[in-house]
Structure formats: structure tokens, C-alpha cells
Design brief:
Number of strands: 2
Strand content: under 5%
Distance between the termini: 46 Å
Radius of gyration: 17 Å
Helix content: 40-55%
Number of helices: 11
Oligomer: single chain
Order of helices and strands: HEEHHHHHHHHHH
């Protein structure tokens, strides 16, 4: 099963930048305009998670080691496969853009901004398919996936594919192709409140371990 269309984005774009990706149509995303192009699927779901899992074998040595492992794995791919990998990655970012995951991140980290939630979801993907799928089913399962010294943030992981693409093509990073799906303007699901006991009621297991007091 191939990954469907997904949006490639980055933090600068989400903060209001405008990028020329060399394609033919503009797509509004979270209040900005980016240029989009359609690509055929060249990396499927199984291949995507296989690459993530192989990179995660180095996670015990730290995030830099996992980034280096992912970079090495992606360097073995063609340019189109790298773009396909990024599409699969973007889909997982979009798929986890949900108030339940944001609430869990908020409890775990004692607060979580929009950028922080982006880095949290990048970390979630880096943990592999099982952890990712379980977190989508029930965010409280993250309790078993988090070691005590893990800050559950992995910003650099989300940039590896575009960096390898830039190295292979020798094109400016601003030309890294996006895909033709629109990033949601807001998370799916039911919004939570920072006030009162809303988060404690919705995430009792995570609150017990990570909550204040």
C-alpha cells in the first residue's frame, strides 16, 4: 500500500515564509501560500517504516546517531524515493495532528507550544510504527515508550530527507518538492483546556507520572 499525497512543510513556512518549489499550483496552508506539485508514490508504507525502524536501532546512542543512521539510509535511495519517503513522513505528521496527542505532549513536557508539538510528533515517528500506531489508538500508551531522560522532542529528524535531497540534487533546499495535500488548519479531535482538571481527567496515567505535584 503506497503512501497517499502528503504535504511537505517546514518550520519557517509555518511561521509565514513563502517558498518557491518550482511547481505549478499554489496551495494555502495554515494561512500561508506554498507551491505544490504532484508526485507518484515511490515509497510505500512498509518501506517507510522499515527505514524508520532501521534508524531507530541507533537511538540508544542518542538522537545524533539516529539522524546519522537515517541520513545514511536515505542516501541509498533515488531522488524520487527520497521525496516519496518525505511524503510518507508528512502523512504521519498530519495523521498525528490531533488534540489528544497534543494534550499528551502537554502533560509529558509540562507545556507544549505549536512548534513543540511539531517536534513531539517528529519524535513519535522516530520511535517506529508500533509506538506511533499505539499512540494514535491511545496516547496513554506513551507512558511505556518514554524513558526517564527522554524529552520527547526530535526537531532534526524532520529535516533529514530534505537535506539528503539537497545534497544529491545540488539544488537549493527551497526547491525541495512539496506534495498536493493541504496541512490542516487545526488539530482534529476535541480540544482540551489548560484550566481545571481537563488534562488530568483525559490522561490520568500520563498525569500521574508527568503531571505537577
Amino acid at each position: 500500500m503506497a503512501c497517499g499525497p502528503g504535504l511537505s512543510y517546514n518550520r519557517l513556512a509555518r511561521k509565514g515564509g513563502v517558498f518557491n518549489f518550482g511547481s505549478v499550483s499554489q496551495v494555502p496552508v495554515a494561512g500561508i501560500q506554498v507551491l505544490a506539485t504532484t508526485m507518484e508514490a515511490v515509497v510505500d508504507n512498509k518501506q517507510f517504516w522499515s527505514i524508520i525502524e532501521k534508524s531507530s536501532e541507533h537511538a540508544a546512542s542518542g538522537q545524533d546517531a539516529q539522524v546519522a543512521a537515517l541520513r545514511e539510509l536515505l542516501q541509498e535511495l533515488t531522488v524520487d524515493e527520497i521525496v516519496g519517503f518525505q511524503r510518507c513522513y508528512d502523512e504521519r505528521m498530519i495523521g498525528s495532528y490531533h488534540w489528544d496527542r497534543w494534550g499528551a505532549a502537554y502533560v509529558i513536557r509540562g507545556g507544549c507550544s505549536d512548534d513543540g508539538f511539531q517536534d513531539f510528533r517528529s519524535w513519535l515517528i522516530s520511535k517506529g510504527e508500533s509506538v506511533y500506531r499505539e499512540a494514535l489508538r491511545d496516547p496513554e500508551t506513551l507512558d511505556a515508550a518514554i524513558v526517564d531522560d527522554d524529552d520527547c522532542q526530535f526537531e532534526e529528524f524532520q529535516y533529514v530527507a530534505s537535506q539528503v535531497w539537497e545534497q544529491k540534487t545540488r539544488k537549493d533546499l527551497s526547491r525541495f518538492p512539496t506534495l498536493d495535500s493541504e496541512y490542516p488548519e487545526s488539530p482534529s479531535g476535541q480540544e482540551w483546556s489548560e484550566e481545571g482538571d481537563d488534562l488530568q481527567r483525559r490522561f490520568p496515567k500520563l498525569w500521574k507520572r508527568f503531571g505537577p505535584g
